[in-house]
Amino acid sequence: MDNNNSNNIKLKNNFEKRFQEIENELRDSHIGLDENFYTSINDNIGISKLIRLSKSIYIAKDDDNDENIDKEKETQQHQIFTTQEYENGIEIHDINNRLVFFCSDYLWNCENHIKSLLKIYSINNCIIYCGLSELAHISHPNSSKSKSKSINNLPNFQNFKNKFIEKMKLSFKKENQDINHDGHDDDDDDEYYQDELPDISCTIKYFPLCYSQPFKNFFTIPIQKSLFPSNYFINDLKLNEYKLNKMPEEIQDNVHKSIYSFLSFLNEMKLGSVSGEDLNIYPIGPFSSYLAHEIQTTLATITNQQQDDYHPISLLLIDRTLDLVGPSLHSENSMDRIYFSTTTPLNKSNNNNNNNNNNNNNNNNDQLNNYQPIINIETFFDNDNKIVSESSINECPRIISTINGSDIERHQNLDNTNNNNTSGESSVRLWDSLITKSLKDVIMILKRRLVEIISKENINVDISSIAGPTNIQSLIALVNVLKDGDNNGDYDDSDDNDDDGNDDGDDNGDNHNHMLMYRYNDIIEAVAAVEQTINLSSQFHWDQLLSIEKILLLSSGYELEEEDEDDEDDEDEENEDNSEPSILSQICDIIETPISGGGGDDKYYSIQEILILCVMAYSIKGLTSKLSQKHLNSLSSLNISNSVSNNNSSNSNLSGSGSVNDNNSVSTLEKIPIFSDSDEQRLINCLSDKILKENIYKDLKFLNRESNNNNNNNDNEEKEEEEEEEEEEEDDENIIDKNELNEILKKKVLSKLKSIGIIRQKYLNEHKSLISGGGSSMMGATYSSLLSQLVKSLFENSVSTGGKDIKDFEKFNSSSLVGYLLGKTNWMGRSKKREKPLDNRKVLIYVLGGITFTELKELTDLFEKTLKSSQYKEFSNHQFLIGSNQILTPLKLFNHLFINENKK
User: How far apart are CA 615 and CA 335, in angstroms?
Assistant: First the structure.
């Protein structure tokens, strides 16, 4: 996957080069970053580089963009101070106070953050680097500036930009007037406000550099972090209904961001020409096809001439919804576990005690705000030093995890020696190495590293008496040795000073005693993450769910083998009751069974945990069973018969594209059984019984009868009044009988599960099954991820190796969406010459919706193994990059499927 070709796509090198170009503007400035740019900068070059250049750094939280942001909260929880005067809260009114703000989002989403900084400092020079283009702003469906539906008729962005700049200037003047007006009488207001005040220089620049490469050969676009392919795209809508402004309002913003953030990324990295030539997109899934169409259509409108060299690439866009088994699993991979435990919010009441009477409350969060891991390292520091305060656990940027990479610049600054294992490069390698390990192996690796560090720093301690057993307690003991070495050890801390001899760290009280801890921050964070994960493992029932999932996967493979061996088609349904229970039936048994090792007979799995198991069951089963195929074949035969008898009418109906497409409509596929009616009805009954018995209906807001009836046009005050009224009537609203609850579950849960089950049948040709092996094979049938199947087919599809023709790899042309939406067997607009993804030397695989560490490791290993094969040696110089918008966990998947689409 990774070679030394000088013409490769180099994400980090490009990032570093572009930041060097603006270094002078950043020097001695106040810097504001939204969370997406913070992630990109920290992952690629390290946030410490900006800390050394700037006066202060402000991290704009995504959920704090209110009209009136509390100034005290901002200065305490969002600010990194880099000089003593700012650290003490002294506001400097310098004649050359400059603010540089990095906004990855639309300008109006950062407006209040920028205004809030004007309240803190007297800014007279403001530079805004925006990650989204002018076209992205004026084409947004909810923007008051954009009412036109045609790109050619869109309003001039310069007018919008000028108005935005005027807003910033007025805000600056008002703040200065308020400051200087203190002590004036009200009668003097009119005269005072006529005084001429210094003007502000405000500049907005397009800066499409918001991407991240947290791991080797893996990149992400942070602004897409909440993107997940909507269930809306699994339908039979006509082409004119696939307009952005006609989509459900709750998905418009994310869809629009995904389109234009991709365009920004392609533009920044020069992937394909400016007009879209040599950008070969191979969409796999309905949302991918829509996205490919929008990208190609937008690029086709650009009239600029190509000035620079560019990379011809093949871009494979893959819908996550085609395979939801991987992100449903509680794998043994250490990084998947660490990500789950560090991104899952818990009820504060349950954090510090083990008295969890209701397990269902642990994960009943309707939102998942922590897209990046939050690691609590407070326990490794003395309480009197207050390095990390409890109130700032989820706010202070210094403890936002570097799992997604490392604070490279900080480590390089602190250790300029040639000794190994302390540079930023080694920090990245640490987290990279953990991707392939179990938690037990990770503990062993970290223990070895800590022993090496203690030896290197000449800390006088008997290691043998401390680091005995290989467990988390031994790791914590070694960290304490390192901390004690901070207090007593003699080491050269000259590297910790900046170029002008000033200490770059926090020198309050005894904080200088923590420089060893700071120097080896990557190790400390890794130990803290492992400890946090182990402590929460039982609360998340990770091991129990892992055992259940293994059994269900084996059962699904066994069911397939059993069906293949049974040749008596007429007796399939009769024999079903006498065969082994289906995996859905086994899930129903789990609902009614207490958790094994859960600490009592009154502890059951939560609704969220059960629904994720159901998602896994429907996704892996699909319409591949003999029962499903039998119904499909009968429908196909019926449609073909009707087509022959009504040949004239069917030829005139261009929107039908043939009888087989009628068989492939969503309404038809939804009628085909995935599991038996009795199993599905039992699931609904078990869920409703559980909800009513535990009285948790009011906590499951995605089932609320009013969840889809909110009006987005209400202002904040009206919404608050409605919430108060809802609270008063809460008791009446939450009274629900079983029949009504059953209908709600069928509508909001079972229908979603059915759509998950039918999507591969509708949109794929060859890769419809996620079960491989079995039959005549010596190995039993097992789960085979769609991503791994596609990578294998990628090479089998190559022309030069004489590979077979694979229809799922179809290059997308700007006119192909018509045929795709009308039916996969007659895709209009596809190129006559069948081009292959490996025709280009650079191949990007981007999973829309998220990827797991287990899948990332699987793909990496698969590429390396394949490229070493003599059969595919001609592709040894190809560059393969894997991308996705987020690391996906089971709880994130639940939120995307059942929570987010119900919000407006």
Answer: 22
CA atoms of 504 and 340, how far apart (whole Å)? 33
Stretch among 149-163, 389-403, 563-577 having the lowest mean pLDDT: 389-403
Residue 168 phi/psi, 5° resolution? -65, -40
CB 283 within 8 A of CB 248: no
Asked whether residue 107 is domain-assigned, the answer is yes
Q: Are 263 and 299 in contact (CB under 8 A)?
A: yes
Phi and psi at residue 783, to the nearest 5° = -70, 130
Distance CA 636, CA 651 (A): 18
Q: Which of 509, 537, 565 is the last residue of a domain?
A: 537
Note the pTM of the prediction, 2 decimals.
0.83
Domain with 747 in it? 542-625+674-765
| Domain match, 737 and 789 both | no
276: left (phi over 0), alpha (psi -120 to 50) or beta: left
Residue 508, in any domain of the structure: yes
Query: Which tokens go with 180?
Result: 């200087």
What is the amino acid identity at position 335? M
Same domain, 616 and 736: yes
Each residue of 36-90: pLDDT tens digit?
A: 999 899 888 888 888 888 888 888 876 554 444 444 444 444 455 444 444 444 4
813 and 849, same domain (yes or no): yes
Sequential DSSP letters for 573-601: HHHHTTSPPPHHHHHHHHHTSPPTTSSST
In a domain, 773, yes or no: no
614 contacts 587 by C-beta, under 8 angstroms: yes
Indicate the number of domains in the chain: 4
Residue range 311-327, pLDDT digits in tens: 999 999 999 999 999 99
H or E stretch at 853: helix 853-868
At residue 154 the predicted structure's pLDDT band, cuts being 50, 70 and 90, is very low
